[in-house]
Amino acid sequence: MSDGVFGLFRRKRDEAPLDARVFDLLCLTAAVVLVLHATHLPPWLDAALIAVLALRWWQRRRKPGRAPIYLKLPLVVLLAATVIFHYGNIFGREPGSALAVGLLVLKLLETETARDAKVTVAFACFTLMAALLSDQGMVATFVVALGLLPAIATLRALQPARLPISLPRELLPALGLLAAALPLSLLAFVLVPRLESPLWGAPPSGQARTGLSDGMSPGDFVDLLTDDHPALRASFDQGPPVPAERYFRAYVMWQYDGRRWSTLPTGRQPVPVEYRDSITYRIALEPTNQRTLPALDVPLSAPARAILDSDHAISSLKPVQDQLTYEVRSALSYRLQSKLDDVTRRRALQLPAGFNPRAQELAGQWRRTFVERDDLIVKAALALFHDGGFSYTLAPAPLGRDAVDDFLFATHEGFCEHYASAFTVLMRAAGVPARVVTGYQGGYWNKLGQYLLVRQSDAHAWSEVWLDGRGWVRVDPTAAVRPERVSLGAAAAAAASAGQSEWKGAAWLRDLRNRWDVVNHWWSEGVIGFDALRQRGLLTPFGVRNTDTTTLSVLLAASSVAFALLGLLWALWRRRDEDPLRAALRTLERKLAKAGVARRSGEGPQHYLQRAARALPGQRAQLDPLMRSYLDLRYAHQTPPPEPLRRFRRAVRDFRPRHVVK
Amino acid sequence: MAMGVADTYRRFQQWAERRLPALTRYRRPENLPIELHRRRIYIVPSGLGAAFGVLLVVMLAGALNYANNSALLLTCLLAASCSASMLVAFRALDGLRLSAIQAGHAIAGERLTLQLHVDAGVRLRQAIRVDMDGQTHAFAVRAHQQFAVEVSLQTEQRGWQTLPRIQLWTSWPLGLFRAWSWLYPDMAVLVWPRPEAGGPPPRSPTDDPTHQRLHHGDDLASLRDYRAGDPQRRIAWKASARHEGLLVKDFEQPRPRLEWRLDWRDLKHLDSESRISRLARWLGEAEARGVPSSLWLPGEEIGHGAGPAHYARCMNALAKLP
Predict the structure, then answer these.
(1) Is residue B217 predicted with pLDDT exceeding 60?
(2) Which residues does chain B have within 8 Å of residue A574's beta carbon, measured at their own beta carbons?
(3) In chain A, where the domains are located
């Protein structure tokens, strides 16, 4: 690049140029912000911003000067245009973050003075926080907090007359400052009153997440079953339910169109349920972008800001954008809706006309054989899956138009959704009210953290049939084929079916990851899940039932004052005077001052002690030797010899001035 | 009633002066050394600090609104760091000692250089700034060391000039807070008189017969051995009698001596300030040419001498004249 191009970058004549070190630190700050945002910005924007940053850094090393307006303005317009083009609008978390990061980098183009640098640092701090809007994880938070280091170091580098230090060592004092600030910040974090409801609407997140949805068609679950991300973590007060009872209900699907199962609009009134005993537990749900809150079969009530629908599925009032912790009560043995009304029965028997003739025929056969015994029909279907040569695989052969017929009579292979779908179709064809339920099943019990870790790969589909006198009964046809699915998990079941064994080789890795997850669990329980509700219970151990905002504010103020006092103690603490002789003389001065002979400013020690001896004639015998030995120690030696010094200090310590009686 | 208010105000002022002497600016001049301590260090947020406060409030509102606890934690961390920097600012000044002030010389109307000797005390001090007479100087000083800050002071007229108030301040470490302390050392600097721009030269020494050290012939300087050719009348007969050889009286050689005798009394036709500025010019010229000079002033007489010390002594004497 010729110097002619650098000629475009001009500096105003009267401004003090920014130190090269400050600019390096600024570039580092912007680079750190960019890296922290890199994962959720489009890659081309990452690349472009890195290029702009690198070019600017290189340009300023060669020749300081700010970019001209006809270079800056088009870049800003281009940035806004590309963000709008990519995200559709400019508001919301994702486009907002992208815009902020872009503006930060572009701001560097015109950063030439100390004032510019300060503005840039403040903006960088704000942009750093924006990185946490998309990921609240422990590692992310930790890394973002470390991202403050170059920002703080930049502010420090702006100060004049510093001792020169190397660039990496600039970060150390900032680290020390953060470490010193940590106790106060943790306290403030716990005590800052949380909002019960947001002041303004949270912008919707446009990010697509894998997870369960309100529909199910063959093959939908394949992505899910191979996704090892945590879906939820459930903590139980009285130990976990046995593996066979770990069914988390998410969606209840009624409608079948021959290919796809889907939910129907449901009533607000939950159907009656009879149960003996219930368990209460807490679920920390990872963001799903959906409303549904999974809960153990069958939930009895909904947590705050959520409703329990007539099928006993819980749905939140708002899509779950951030990790959400909620407490639910469920009954594990229950009788759900013992009376079935006609409308519901019709819905539970709905089948599309003209599909799966062979399955219908088989179901008709069963009905004729078992007449009124619905439970025997269920048994017959399960026996078919168990003994009919069916296998469990995550890569089944594709199915044609009559999907259930193809599956039942031709391919004989599939996973939970195939079995649940085929079973439910068979039941409906036989006249047994049935529906499909999706959710999660299984999970890993983390002993250390005392919680159940459920991953996306634990997604599952099963059926519910309505039996007279027993209500809706859960039937898991997959378990008939592969009991491992229920006891071990989808991957285990698939591998066992295929006769593979490599998943066992990776078992230790899986185990390690499951154990490590306890740290994430603690983070999500202790930090992310610390909401207004938990904050109100903060002082329960101290007998305060409901810690309201006023109490919290008072506590916050009081503890801030306490910390301020601690800080003041530190600030006021001074190292002891390192000269023992001067310290001893000061002690003597203090004692004499109490007796009424204070040292005048500018008065030498000899004059002062002589005056003291005149003022306290009764103690001349002590004061004169003290004066002589002080003068000797101070002026006859380069450093006072230790033994006479000790004697002098002892004499000062033993000296007791007596007030003169006038 | 008015008396009551005035009285209350006066008492408030006295109280404030007693409690917050450095802030109220009524502090009396004080002796060196001056050590900064908590009673005289004041801290307020700087402009950047205020801006950061606004930023923190915005971040807090955002974090609370989106119930994003990680962001809240980050905000708390940043806020606590900012507060901690206030204490660091205080510590940067606490224990700092102005131990001595060394004043240079300047003639009236020029800037006088002062060296402020600052003791660091037990810790390293960086980015400490001295404000005096409208100028700011920044310096750093290592622990247990002393640093001499050079500041300059605009002088007005000859004579003693008291030092203005000095502000020691810092925005260390992050520039978010400004900590300062006012110092009012009880010290005055001597400003030399301004020499007149031009005028007559001093009376030539040769004009003055009393100051011509010619050969008078009878000023005995020493005795020495006789050398052939010495005139007989120079032989010291009495001394020679007590000696083995003849001794000759050696007389002082006549030397043309150039020296200026500057006298207040010679300038009777001028007023006092004009006399001072003329004498100052003459002293300056003598110093520049290396000519020895002596100075007679009412109340002070300075004998012959040359060199910077002599010049300074003479100028000081001139500066101190009433």
Answers:
(1) no
(2) 94-95, 121-122
(3) 3-160, 216-490, 580-654
